[in-house]
TrEMBL record:
SUPFAM superfamilies linked: Duplicated hybrid motif
Signal sequence coordinates: 1-23
UniProt keyword Signal, yes or no: yes
Keyword annotations from UniProtKB, A to Z: Signal
GO MF term list: metalloendopeptidase activity
Source organism superkingdom: Bacteria
Xref: InterPro entries: Cell_wall_metabolism_enzyme, Dup_hybrid_motif
Native source organism of the sequence: Anaerobacillus alkalilacustris
Protein name: Peptidase M23
């Protein structure tokens, strides 16, 4: 009759020994615990060193975790779906979008080698919040089938919402003017949706030229952050098109394709700063001439923060060095979609005038 008691005591002893053993391990380390993790949850990816970064092949990731991905070769854009989270990146843009929210990190970017698509290990660590162990040519991580997303915000698509002018004006009313005392231009060519024949596309944002805003604008004109937000992109290391011929080569490709690939579009925007606000609103400030050295990704800003200075980077004026095309361009997005998509040109004009009224 004593056997059950002996067995219970034996298992209690094993439990105590196991607990003491676990206390000796460093938190967050795989050391001493690899044998305890089942093969079903422990995943391994081969690493490759490209451009001084440890990267893994995107295809390999989706061979070991459940999900799906698509790489659009035309736009060089990557879309990945993991556990109800959608991640988007574009080649040449050091920003990752998660469920329409742009994350404050510049460590995630697409790396391409022989037309193959890779991502840095930081995607697993920073974005998926996974515990990773990097050993020479491989990275090991535990995958339970559930990610711990940096942002688990559930978003609503512009397409799914019913919008009218009043609703959009109210939604964007927290934004202040990017240039003090400037009036938003109502010239059709300066507004979203205007055709851009030179690159076979459409104007996606708002142009602030001196002659159309009632204010003198120069290379010394500061650009303000417009509202409380977080900086998600800062192009301190921007490099201008080195020659007119190289820029024209990109434009010739757009003519051949009949549209502007996203990675080329981004180059044509020049030096940029992106700011993520509340309610999924994100602002792309483009064609900047300079950016304060003290501004960094992750910084919190407000309507009085100077995020840059008006310029002409990315334009023909910058490549020619003649000082022309000086203006601020800004794109407003809501959960990754251009705010103006549901509206006519007249409605867009009314929205902007009302949002940026004094």
């Amino acid at each position: 009759m004593k056997r059950p008691f002996i067995l219970v005591s034996f298992f209690m002893l094993l439990l105590i020994i196991s607990c003491n053993s676990n206390q000796d391990e460093e938190p967050g380390s795989f050391e001493g615990s690899l044998d305890q993790i089942t093969n079903e949850t422990l995943k391994e990816l081969k690493l490759k060193s490209i451009e001084e970064s440890n990267v893994f092949h995107v295809y390999d990731l989706f061979e070991v975790v459940e999900g799906e991905y698509n790489f659009d070769e035309l736009h060089r854009s990557l879309t990945m779906k993991l556990n109800d989270q959608t991640y988007k990146l574009v080649y040449g843009i050091p920003v990752v979008e998660q469920n329409g929210i742009y994350l404050p990190t510049d460590e995630i970017f697409i790396v391409m080698d022989n037309e193959e698509v890779y991502l840095p290990v930081a995607f697993l660590d920073i974005v998926l919040d996974l515990e990773v162990d990097v050993n020479d040519d491989k990275v090991v991580f535990q995958w339970s089938g559930e990610t711990l997303p940096t942002s688990s915000i559930q978003t609503t698509s512009l397409i799914d919402e019913e919008w009218d002018v009043d609703k959009m004006v109210d939604y964007l009313s927290f934004l202040k003017k990017p240039i003090q005392k400037a009036e938003v231009s109502t010239i059709p060519n300066h507004l979203p949706g205007a055709k851009r024949a030179y690159r076979n596309g459409y104007h996606e944002g708002i142009d602030w030229y001196g002659y159309a805003t009632g204010q003198h604008i120069s290379f010394n004109t500061p650009v303000l952050a417009m509202a409380e937000g977080v900086v998600v992109r800062v192009d301190h290391d921007y490099e201008e098109y080195s020659t007119v011929q190289i820029r024209n080569k990109d434009l010739s490709l757009t003519a051949e394709l009949g549209e502007t690939p996203q990675y080329i579009f981004d180059r044509l925007r020049g030096r940029q700063v992106w700011v993520q606000y509340e309610k999924g609103v994100m602002n792309r400030f483009a064609h900047l001439d300079a950016i304060p050295d003290t501004l960094h990704v992750g910084d919190e800003v407000n309507s009085e923060t100077i995020i840059g200075y008006v310029g002409n980077s990315g334009t023909s004026g910058a490549v020619n060095g003649d000082g022309s095309e000086l203006h601020l361009h800004q794109d407003l997005l809501i959960y990754g979609e251009l705010f103006w998509k549901p509206f006519t040109l007249d409605e867009i004009k009314e929205i902007l005038v009302r949002v940026f009224k004094d």
